[in-house]
Amino acid sequence: MTDNAKRSGPSREWLLHIADLEDACPSVSVGGMACDFDLLPAASEAQRVFGRLIELARRKKNLTVEQLAVKADIDLEDLVEIENEEPIVPQVRTVFQLAHALELPAGRLMEVAGLAKARPEVNQAALKFAARSESTAKLTREEKEALDEFVKVLIEVSDGG
Amino acid sequence: MSGIETFVQRRSDKELVSATILEGMAATDLLVVENEWRAERSSVMQELLSAGVARPNWPESLHWDWSRKVPELQLLASTGFGIVCEKRWQGVMITKSAGYFTRLEPDKGKPLLYVDYLEVAPWNWVIPQINRDGLYKTVGSTLFWRAVQQSEEEGFHGRVGLHALPQAEPFYEKVCRMRPLGRDASKQNLLYFELTRQQAAGFLKMGESK
Amino acid sequence: MAAKKTMTLNLTDAEMAVLDELSEKKDLSKTAVLRQALRLYQMVNMRIDRGEKLFFEDEAKKEKAEVMVL
């Protein structure tokens, strides 16, 4: 037992007053939780992997950046940002459109893009992919293998629910 | 764990419902919190995706995983608080009572209570874009009230410091009456707020009839 | 706050003087100063055990010195 037993909480008047004030300020989140949990570096890792995946999938289809932007009906600027792996979280619509244009499972692509909590299989495949792929103009045999393997996992995970 | 009896306000009918502020959360409690909150967070995310809400408008704490905070609780300086109502964790806070010092005069350099993490359960979130009103109000405010009280118990005279996530900045400035003191590069550029001992006294007395 | 136990502490005059000075400077009771010291010592040790290092940095002089923690 502790010496807390007799303490009381805030008064009813205080609670009613604060409840009215809260209406204007919905969020109360505090913390360096994002930094302590390395969530932000994790997000940029997601952007890096997502950017590489989109670039390789585009090159595999022999599309230029402009052609893919038209095909997916997204802003060319957004696509360039994604492929340059800039620290910007893509819009949900952009990811859906790219998934459709590149014939990738949209749900899993959301996970790769950091827009949805990634399943362990996807995370693992993404890490492996990131480690294997290098940025070069032409798709090398290794890059093609890395891409194929990653896409295979994404599709398998989708099928498996 | 020790507890303080209190109330939270049910948003639907503005009734004050009995609740308990618990102090001294253990690792297992955080795991229970994560289990209870994870499912609701997934629903929120699904609804946001279906509604096509842009990522910048998503709740900023959507990706938090409380179970990863477990090692923190081994520290003497860390204390975990939670509010339980109707057998569910409605909000959680972790404070640090050593290693943080006041930046504002006249108490500059003296210790303060640092709120490391504070969040309410996802079913209490207000997200207008997907018509979520939140079940209970006053959970976050009451946790902050407890932080001010802990600061007094520690001999810090109600001084409190914290880094708020951008969407929560108005809450700490307007409701909690804290002073914003600039962004910290070492904390992902989050805005740092401080409550002086004078502001603390005012905060605890809010709503008192004259 | 958890239940507490009382103990007697033997300090030299010099140690007592430092405790008095810190108590005054930080506006804390002597017990609170010692409690702060214990919490910080535990925190530092935990991080050292994880393989981290403790440094003092002087921004003006651009100096950084590692603190040895025993």
CATH class of chain B: Alpha Beta
Anisotropy-based shape of chain A: elongated
Rounded to the nearest angstrom, the radius of gyration of chain B is 17 Å
Number of helices of chain B: 4
**Structural class determined from secondary elements of chain B:** alpha+beta
Q: Based on the coordinates given, report the CATH architecture of chain A.
A: Orthogonal Bundle
The H/E string of chain A reads HEHHHHHHHH
- The CATH superfamily of chain A is lambda repressor-like DNA-binding domains
Whole-number tally of structural domains of chain B: 1
Record field, number of beta strands of chain A: 1
Helical residue percent band of chain B: 25-40%
Overall strand count of chain B? 9
- Strand proportion of chain A, as a percent range, falls in under 5%
Order of helices and strands of chain B: EEHEEEEHEHEEH
What is the structural class of chain A? mainly alpha
Give the secondary structure arrangement, pairings included.
The complex is a heterotrimer of chains A (161), B (210) and C (70).
Chain A: H1 12-22, E1 30-31, H2 33-36, H3 39-60, H4 65-72, H5 76-83, H6 92-102, H7 106-112, H8 120-132, H9 141-159
Helix pairs in contact in A: 3-8, 4-6, 6-7, 8-9
Chain B: E1 2-10, E2 16-23, H1 27-50, E3 78-85, E4 88-96, E5 113-120, E6 136-137, H2 139-153, E7 160-164, H3 169-175, E8 179-184, E9 190-195, H4 197-204
Parallel strand pairs in B: 5-7
Antiparallel strand pairs in B: 1-2, 1-6, 2-3, 3-4, 4-5, 7-9, 8-9
Chain C: H1 13-26, H2 30-49, E1 54-58, E2 63-67
Antiparallel strand pairs in C: 1-2
